[in-house]
Specification:
- By secondary structure, this protein is of the alpha/beta class.
- It has one domain: Rossmann fold, CATH 3.40.50.720.
- Strands 3-2-1-4-5-6-7 form a seven-stranded parallel beta sheet, sandwiched between helices.
- Helix 1 crosses helix 8, helix 3 packs parallel to helix 4 and helix 4 runs parallel beside helix 5.
- The radius of gyration is 17 Å and the shape is globular.
- The chain starts with 7 loop residues before the first strand and ends in a 6-residue tail after the last strand.
């Protein structure tokens, strides 16, 4: 059984949805969990909920697209906890639009959060993990990294996350730090619930499992990658999508 007692984990974009499900799973496995999000009310609510389950959880407001905020956040977490063992780069947004209609603002906003934000978090924390000779970096990419109609910005960012993950895996392996990417398929979250019913039905029809995924489906995979049992799994891109990508 996986037990993360003594491990300090950061989960970005964890106020709700997939990020919250990931944080909840890590709390249940006895990790100290740092919830990060730009939504203060959401962070406070998430911390309150998880504390009721006797979890050791703390919340911080930080925009991963802002390098200064990230560095201050990481410094504070390290000062208060003395180590950082697990980083889950989950924070992400979408600003969908067909390629010929997409604005530069839509493009830049998504890249800033979904790709540059992953770099902002990974760079300082990778230094910490190198010095402590151990750590787990788990990046949330997407099945859309292979390309998806209306998501040129999102797909490009998520493909970039895969490349960043594989580079980190090569550079950090000698320090007992692993870096892996998870590509969720169609997961039932606040983001996906906003799509029209016809689109929802179409997406589910493409999934051999016959249902949308749940946050815990992704969280279960993350909990294994975060554990000591996964110490020899590095640089992998793992689809969690009920067979949607085969």
């Amino acid at each position: 059984m996986i037990n993360l007692t003594g491990k300090v984990a950061i989960v970005t974009g964890a106020a709700r949805g997939l990020g919250f499900g990931i944080a909840e799973k890590l709390v249940n496995l006895n990790a100290t969990v740092i919830i990060n999000d730009i939504d203060k009310a959401g962070v406070d609510a998430a911390v309150k909920t998880l504390e009721q389950n006797d979890g050791k959880v703390f919340g911080y407001v930080c925009n991963v697209a802002n390098e200064q905020q990230v560095n201050e956040f990481v410094d504070q977490v390290l000062t208060e906890n003395e180590r950082i063992d697990i980083l889950v780069n989950n924070a992400g947004i979408n600003r969908d639009g067909m390629l010929h209609k997409m604005t530069s603002e839509q493009w830049k906003t998504v890249l800033d959060v979904n790709l540059t934000g992953v770099f902002h978090m990974t760079q300082p924390i990778s230094k910490i993990m190198r010095e402590q000779n151990g750590g787990r970096i788990i990046n949330i990419s997407s099945a859309s990294w292979l390309g998806n109609v209306g998501q040129a910005n999102y797909a490009a960012a998520k493909a970039g996350v895969v490349g960043l993950t594989k580079t980190a895996a090569r550079e950090l392996a000698r320090y007992d730090v692993t870096a892996n990417a998870i590509c969720p398929g169609f997961i039932d979250t606040d983001m996906t619930r906003g799509v029209p019913e016809k689109v929802w039905d179409m997406m589910v029809s493409k999934i051999p499992a016959g249902r949308a995924g749940k946050p815990e489906d992704v969280a279960n995979c993350i909990s294994f990658l975060a554990s000591d049992q996964a110490s020899y799994i590095n640089g992998e891109v793992i689809n969690v999508g009920g067979g949607m990508v085969l």
